[in-house]
Amino acid sequence: MTVPVLMLLLLGLPAAGGAVASRCARSLPPAVATVLLTIFAVSAAVGTLAALALVGYVGTVDLLPALHPADWSASEIAAALPVPVAAGAGVLAVALTGRGLLGLARTLRSDRAVVATVAGLAAAGDLVVLPDPGILAYAVPARGGRIVVSAGMLRALSGPQRRALLVHERAHLVHHHHRYLRLGYLAAMLNPLLGPVERAVDHAVERWADDAAVRAVGDRAVVAQAIGVAAVAGSSRRGGTTLAAGRGDVVARVRDLLDGPPRRPASDALLVVATVLSWAVVALLVVHTHGLIETAELSGS
Fold first, then answer.
1. How far apart (Å, rounded) are the C-alpha atoms in residues 218 and 213?
2. DSSP the chain
3. Integer Cα distance of 241 and 178 in angstroms
4. What is the pLDDT of residues 44-88, one digit of tens each?
């Protein structure tokens, strides 16, 4: 029963990480939180999928003998790895792979659509101003990076608030935040239990850009006001290319700007432990499965 126990532990780690992810996104320095959360999401997603695929392949030797080496003993493997467990792991691996490919296709399709739209707009440097009375502002990491702002947004903000907004959006481009968001999104598509971690990455990225705006403007209240106006836009796209100041939990971001983020060192440590455990469990599973294969080969020869 070692393999089933390890599989349950591996599936439980994403849920455990998700339980503390939002706290880490608020309490850690935003750049550190973004990197750590992304590493955890990718580790948990890839590790879980690899383990499911490995168990599904090895444990189905009795069901699909043509796909396995002839010298493997089906009875030896079935004794340590029940066929229903292996078959379930295999089916789940295929389903999660399909979700991941669907997420990748959505991201690529969104990228192409946004790039095509921005390509047709006149820009002054990296800034594109749309003659739109609505509230709209976002960054597009394409064609060298573009910041798209509506005329209505610019009119709604004061001079310092406009500067804060533009610095915020430019920080997304400079620090390549879209890469973290894409990895978080794809990880959540590969493993739905990582949904809270994806949202935490989004929040940490926005805090990162907020901090850049605070350093440039020197007034946290001005940045908070600019974020509040941008939040009206609702222009964020899940898993897509654009990065808008109004993404994430705006209320929490404004509270952290005005009052300072809470400190929760225990949550931070738990996320690090969960990341390390994800790799450790995968390593144990691979080692145990390898030993099982060697035993099956000896019994089958």
1. 8
2. -HHHHHHHHHHHHHHHHHHHHHHHHHHS-HHHHHHHHHHHHHHHHHHHHHHHHHHHHHHTTTT-GGGS-TT--HHHHHHHS-HHHHHHHHHHHHHHHHHHHHHHHHHHHHHHHHHHHHHTS--BTTEEEE--SS--EEEE-STT-EEEEEHHHHHHS-HHHHHHHHHHHHHHHHTTHHHHHHHHHHHHHH-GGGHHHHHHHHHHHHHHHHHHHHHHH--HHHHHHHHHHHHTT----TTSS-B-TT-S-HHHHHHHHHH-----HHHHHHHHHHHHHHHHHHHHHHHHHHHHHHHHHHHH-
3. 7
4. 899 889 888 888 888 887 777 777 777 777 777 777 778 888 888
**145-181 confidence digits (pLDDT tens):** 888 888 888 888 889 999 999 999 999 999 999 999 9
The lowest-confidence range among 42-46, 90-94, 196-200, 294-298 is 294-298
- pTM for this one? 0.83
* Residue type for position 189: M
Nearest to 5 by CA among 291, 281, 270: 281
Residue 270 has pLDDT above 70, yes or no: yes
Predicted pLDDT at 299: 65
